[in-house]
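Example 9 (inverse folding). The structure is encoded as follows.
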């Protein structure tokens, strides 16, 4: 069983979203958690666009989410929100799919102008699924080094912020299960 499910809403590969999520994944795994990583590119376009909530892949994802202790969800910012394909995937999940689970939202944008997309777009989506959104992380594209996926964040203050959010996520999971 994977204790943490990670969902990437980036249609690009490789992407700064995936690099960021995989970096956070490594930090969570260092805390002793197992993870399952899903990208929207892992799902059939037909399933997503034809709304096949009963597809085998969607059912497996739903089961993994139901068994998870926490969720990390990330997306690039498109038009001041998360990606449409991420929304297509989320629409296929059961109502309350994130119920009572801490959720760490992560967004990557081209500039700080879309910093509030995490609060006005992604967190409400998490709440609709009955998840418990944490503060979350917002990165500007230039803060993520695509050439160094093992250590993609160079700014010390940002490294500290990421570690702080991972700790908050871990503590939220531990509180829920005590």
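The amino acid assigned to each position is listed next.
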């Amino acid at each position: 069983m994977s204790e943490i499910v990670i969902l990437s809403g980036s249609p690009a590969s490789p992407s700064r979203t995936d690099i960021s999520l995989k970096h956070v994944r490594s930090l969570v795994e260092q805390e002793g958690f197992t993870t399952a990583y899903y990208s929207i590119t892992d799902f059939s376009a037909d399933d997503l666009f034809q709304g096949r909530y009963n597809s085998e892949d969607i059912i497996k994802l739903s089961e993994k989410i139901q068994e998870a202790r926490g969720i990390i969800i990330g997306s690039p910012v498109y038009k001041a929100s998360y990606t449409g394909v991420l929304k297509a995937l989320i629409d296929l999940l059961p109502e309350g799919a994130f119920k009572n689970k801490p959720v760490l939202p992560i967004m990557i944008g081209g500039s700080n102008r879309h910093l509030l997309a995490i609060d006005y777009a992604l967190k409400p989506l998490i709440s609709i699924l009955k998840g418990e959104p944490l503060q979350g992380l917002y990165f500007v594209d230039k803060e993520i080094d695509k050439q160094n996926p093992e250590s993609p964040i160079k700014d010390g203050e940002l490294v500290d912020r990421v570690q702080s959010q991972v700790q908050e996520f871990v503590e939220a999971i531990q509180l829920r299960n005590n």
